[in-house]
Amino acid sequence: MTKEKRMEPPRLSLVPSSQESHDHAGDEAGEETARVGSLPRNVAALPFADHREKLRILEALLFAAAEPLDEAKLAGHLAEGENIAALIEELRAFYAGRGVNLVKVAGKWAFRTAEDLSYLLERYATQERRLSKAALETLSIIAYHQPVTRAEIEEIRGVTTSAGTLDILLETGWVRLRGRRRAPGRPVTYGTTDAFLSHFGLEGIKDLPGLAELRASGLLDGNLPPDFTVPDPTDVAALMPDELPLEAGEDEDEEEDDETGEDTDEEADDLPDGEEPDKS
């Protein structure tokens, strides 16, 4: 006769009260951990967790501001009576070793790139500016008529040329001061540079477009006078016979007057009254 196994219901064990209280505390800690874990890791790592939300507010304000903010403006976004100086100091310490630092600028606070990393943000850019119509006309006249003075440019254009226009062309490096014209006042003469040729892809100044090319490109009016011509441009580095060095000035004028044998005003003053200088 076989012995049948007797079926017994499972036994339930009760948790001791001490263990129950421990689990309850663990649940509260878990909730706190979950709440912290819901924040981004970099935010949860902020120092002084009890000030986390306040520090986040300050961080957001300073990051988004287009200009440095003072403590009064920052305090306006927090509860009255908050120690704004202490909060800013905490945030400053937190960013002290990072790529951006919280620094005080003219009594206000702002984020700035760490000084030792500033070289990473150096940017070399060439700002391109369009030349005005007056500058383009002046440049063309200088290119085709060089060496040319300001007065000659104005005569060709038919209008006054401002000094600012010539300054811009000199600043671009496309125009240079050549010398001085052998004329009263010793006006400065202008010419083009190698940078001008390089920018416009010209091998030499003689590669500038002629009359036919300018007409074909639409740069010249079709109703031109029959005798209209485009000068053959030249760019001789050496001074022309009618040019003097830039350093030439009043001393040069006096030397030429002495060579011609003309009397000076002082010599005329030494003559007796009523007598005229000898013009023989």
Number of helices: 12
How confident overall, as mean pLDDT?
74
Q: Please give the number of β-strands.
A: 6
Structural class: alpha+beta
Low-confidence stretches: 32-36, 259-272
Read across the widest sheet, the strand sequence of neighbours is 3-5-4-6
Strand content: 5-15%
Q: Whole-Å distance between the termini?
A: 171 Å
Question: Nearest-angstrom radius of gyration?
Answer: 43 Å
Largest sheet: number of strands, sense, barrel closure: 4 strands, antiparallel
Order of helices and strands: HHHHHEEHEHHEEHHEHH
Global outline: elongated
Quaternary structure type: single chain
Helix residue percentage: 40-55%
Walk me through what this model shows.
This protein is an alpha+beta fold and 280 residues long. It has 12 helices and 6 strands. It has helices at 17-37, 41-44, 52-64, 71-75, 84-94, 133-145, 150-157, 163-172, 194-199, 211-216, 250-260, 265-269; strands spanning 100-105, 108-113, 148-149, 175-181, 188-192, 243-244. The strands form 2 sheets. The protein has a 4-stranded antiparallel β-sheet with strand order 3-5-4-6. Strands 1-2 form a two-stranded antiparallel sheet. β1 and β2 (108-113) form a beta hairpin. The chain is elongated and about 85 Å long. Residues 32-36 and 259-272 have low confidence and may be disordered.
